[in-house]
Amino acid sequence: MESLKEVFMGLLKDRVGRLGMIGVLIIIIMALLSPYIANHDVTEMNAKIKLSPPNSEYFFGTDEFGRDVFSRIVYGARVSLWVGLISVGISATSGLILGLVAGYYEGKIGTVIMSIMDMLFAFPSILLALFIVAVLGPSLTNTMIAIGIVNTPVFTRTVRASVISVKSMEYITSARSIGLRDIQIILKHILPNILAPFTVQATLALSGAILTEASMSFLGLGIQPPDPSWGSMLSESRKYMELAPWLAIAPSAFIIITILSFNIMGDSLRDVLDPKFKL
Amino acid sequence: MRAYIIRRLMLLIPILLGISLMIFLIMQFIPGDVISGMLGIEETPELRAQLEKKLGLDQPLYKQYINWISKAVRGDFGTSFRTGKDIFPEIMSRFKITFQLTIMAAIISWIIAIPLGILSAMKRNSIIDGFVRFISLLGVSVPSFALATLAILLLSKGFNYYPSVGYVDITVDPIRNLEIMFLPAIILGSSMAGSVMRMTRSSLLETLRQDFIKTIRAKGASEKVVLFVHSLKNALIPIITLIGMQIGSLLGGAVVIEQIFSIPGLGLMTLTGINQRDFPVVQGCVLFIAFVYVIVNLTVDILYTYIDPRITYKAGR
After folding, report:
1. CATH architecture of B92-307
2. How many structural domains is chain A composed of?
3. Domain segments of chain B: what residues?
């Protein structure tokens, strides 16, 4: 794998990729610095100013409880990114372990692991996530667990496929012939060589996870009130579409910008790390 | 060929059993106790024992599973906690609605995506290509629920048009039904179109780079012949895989759009089941949807052999 600096420079060279990086950076800054950027308390209600249009005090207006939409959007970035990172962390870690094992030991263990993954694949992803949350009960943690489980098979497949192709390389055979143990071969010689497709997969999964969280929250089965989530903000806005269209515009815009930026970044990351995909 | 299909159909059995077992096991994680939820304050030990016996919950877990699955294969998905009605007939009537929505959305997405994808590949690196790529990236990145909300907002504010409420079945009033289904189908279709466009473009470019196309060009074939006679068919396989996956997941995953437009399809039934904690309904819907998804994917696999005769699927491979 190329050095981090090379990858970064490669991303910067691509004009569209740069835009994606800027978008991602904005979302990350919003999430990290939300207490400093938000100018109101996200749960503070004030009936006197409910459904106010955007103004110099409330940049994106206020909602039906008089809460500041701008501050809720800013904190929403934190929630989205947090859910994305943790759930991708869950699926990437479990997918990495399962994929390494299934790829290295192709026999019975591999078959068992891959059959379970195939079964998880037999569900439309949003449905499986909703089903898991329905059983566990809707909450922030359960949303992350559900999305984490749903994305595990993709990681397992990606990792397994790369392990199988790396395994047949001569340097692995020689590593084995000098008597290295399996765990040493996996960690020192296979793992570093499969990181490129794994990283691309993780970036793309991040936007997928953020999208799934927004959909689940939109349906009322993701992040629960009063925590701000873009999906549930958008869902609530539909009741006041006539009176307060700004309630719908702000969360949709941020959902779209976030997912778009991550997708662009994932695409150019793939071009940089895996030039054979470049068309 | 026939042997391959039979083999694939046989393989369905363990996959479906595995899926049903997985659903059954996940259901065991429901916190609290379903019986107390059903009985509420009227709970007495006698009533409890009675109901447990009626629902078969007094049996060991493996017996409960065998009981459930042996009924399910005969089309008996049990009855709803809420309405007391049989679940399977309800699933079938809801499925018809979701099926119609999916097919309409899929056709709309092909009409948009495939010509644009081809155009983009033919005029590679031109302004048109850039425009199509941008549109397809938007299509991939804009979630259908955001698109739907913004479309409703735009139509109501800009054109004074409000989406119709109250579903009418196609057998009752086909024109009214199409009126109701059109907007949701366009929104789902545009969401699907993004990835189909990207796939058409990249798959066609990949094919056009291959040696046999060079040979055909060298023989003096016109670009039209190169494109329509030789390239498209070869480029179709990944596109069909993607379309198959999209249709499969829409058949059970149009939850959000069905909810926004109050279309009483399978997705909405599942969602209502989840919100009312009506577990037999949820279990039945999820099992049915996973079943449909697997069947659609199998159909796509079999379709390959017709499109690409190089794939022969020799038995034992």
Report:
1. Orthogonal Bundle (1.10)
2. 1
3. 92-307
Q: Which of residues 55 through 74 in chain B touch A, CB cutoff 8 A? A: none
Alpha carbons B78 and A229: distance in angstroms, whole number: 36
Name chain A contacts of B259, Cβ cutoff 8 Å.
219
Q: What is the CATH number of the domain that holds A120?
A: 1.10.3720.10
A135-175 pLDDT per residue, tens: 888 889 999 999 999 999 989 988 888 888 888 778 888 88
Give residues 202 to 221 of A whose Cβ lies within 8 Å of B.
Answer: 207, 211, 214-215, 218-221
Who has greater pLDDT, B135 or B164? B135
Contact A263 B141 (CB under 8 A): yes
Structure tokens at B14: 């363990």
- Give residue A3's pLDDT band: very low, low, confident or very high (50, 70, 90): low
State pLDDT tens for residues A36-65. Answer: 887 777 777 777 777 777 877 777 877 777
State how far the alpha carbon of B192 is from the alpha carbons of A123, A239, B232, in Å: 18, 27, 20
- B290–A122 CB contact, under 8 Å: yes
Rounded to whole angstroms, what are the CA distances from A33 to A36, A42, A99, A162, B170? 5, 14, 36, 38, 52
Cα-Cα-Cα-Cα dihedral sign, residues B95, B96, B101, B103: positive
Give chain A positions within 8 Å (CB) of B17: none
